[in-house]
Design brief:
Layout lengths: L2 H4 L14 H20 L6 H26 L7 H14 L8 H25 L4 H20 L8 H8 L1 E2 L2 E2 H19 L1 H11 L1 H6 L4 H26 L12 H10 L11 H20 L4 H20 L2 H19 L1
Antiparallel strand pairs: 1-2
Helix pairs in contact: 2-13, 3-8, 3-11, 3-12, 3-13, 4-5, 4-6, 4-11, 5-6, 5-11, 7-11, 8-9, 12-13, 12-14, 13-14
Length: about 350
């Protein structure tokens, strides 16, 4: 085997942890939002409100990290809603309120998540199907299983999961610690390991990566598997945070997960991912929803606000603003020339 075939494409700069454009943008946006919340809706930043918001922000951060892995490979995962909902249903229905059966339910849920991740990986990675079509079909299968298990009816979570996922430690929701662990592990793996750097390089230029002999199909498929694992974890935490979650609890996480990825600065075309900014963007979106809710607006308006945040993120990171400025300057110069 040649040395060339076993080497990954070089990612210039190595492991870079500097302040990215996405991190700067979303951090400033979060600070401004908190300031607006203090002035216009102080109840949205009260201690009780923050304790209610942070667990859902943590779940969104975990789910968004999974979505980021898929987006880094140039794909998108529309099976988020079904995956999170199925994790919630398995975690609540299989134990039937019995703490002793919780571990078995978690193992079963994880196995199912891996199976659906492999399915997505086969469809997108090996069969080459469009990610939107493939994951949309998988989402339908996931919801079929959800309805088959639950019949669409909610069920209460176990007391043990409620204490572990929904409790507090040092005054901070336990779910936040899970989210911090996920973000830290994912960021370190991505930036400091050979596999992580290869993962980014393959997403940035799969043709060049394949030319060097890297198993691009495996990495692309693996992104969907790890994404499903993170959706499962988010669903498990969600089942512990909410005492009696609905069977369709994951429906609220598709658009926000994509919005968090985009606001965090990760390109929808694939390549380098920004995991920490994605988590911060999840906090921003959760607080934005709490802020809008405190203002007393309808659910439709809250959905439009989330869509607007996604649109702004796409505009910030995909539009070549330098080219726009050059064109405006050229147009202005032509007008001045015509006027003289």
């Amino acid at each position: 085997m040649s040395t060339k075939a076993t080497q990954a494409p070089v990612v210039r700069g190595g492991a870079r942890f500097g302040l990215s454009r996405g991190m700067l943008t979303v951090s400033v946006a979060l600070v401004l939002l908190l300031g607006a919340s203090v002035v216009a809706a102080p109840t949205s930043v009260s201690r009780s409100a923050l304790l209610g918001t942070l667990p859902f922000a943590a779940v969104l951060a975990i789910v968004a990290i999974g979505q980021t892995l898929v987006v880094q490979q140039g794909g998108i995962d529309l099976s988020v809603a079904g995956a999170v909902s199925l994790a919630v249903v398995i975690t609540t229905y299989v134990p039937a309120g019995t703490d002793g059966k919780l571990l078995g339910a978690l193992v079963l849920g994880l196995g199912v998540a891996v199976a659906f991740g492999i399915l997505n990986g086969l469809l997108v990675g090996w069969r080459g199907l469009n990610p939107i079509v493939a994951t949309l079909g998988t989402n339908a299968l996931l919801y079929a299983v959800v309805l088959g298990i639950s019949g669409g009816s909610p069920r209460r979570t176990t007391d043990l999961l409620r204490r572990v996922a929904g409790g507090l430690s040092l005054g901070i929701p336990n779910s936040v610690y899970f989210a911090l662990a996920v973000v830290a592990i994912a960021a370190v793996t991505m930036k400091l390991t050979v596999g992580g750097r290869r993962f980014e390089a393959i997403g940035a230029n799969p043709v060049a990566a394949a030319a060097t002999g890297l198993p691009t199909t495996w990495y692309r498929a693996g992104a969907y598997v790890w994404a499903q694992v993170l959706y499962w974890l988010g669903g498990v935490l969600l089942a512990g945070v909410i005492a009696q979650p609905t069977a369709f609890q994951g429906e609220a996480y598709l658009l926000p997960s994509v919005a968090a990825v985009v606001l965090g600065g990760t390109s929808l075309l694939g390549g380098r991912g920004f995991l920490v900014p994605t988590a911060v963007a999840a906090v921003f979106l959760s607080q934005l929803e709490q802020f809008v809710l405190a203002l007393g607006v309808s659910f439709a308006i809250r959905t439009l606000v989330e869509a607007a945040a996604l649109t702004v993120g796409v505009a910030l990171y995909t539009v070549d603003w330098s080219a726009v400025r050059r064109r405006l300057a050229a147009s202005s110069a032509r007008h001045e020339t015509a006027a003289t």
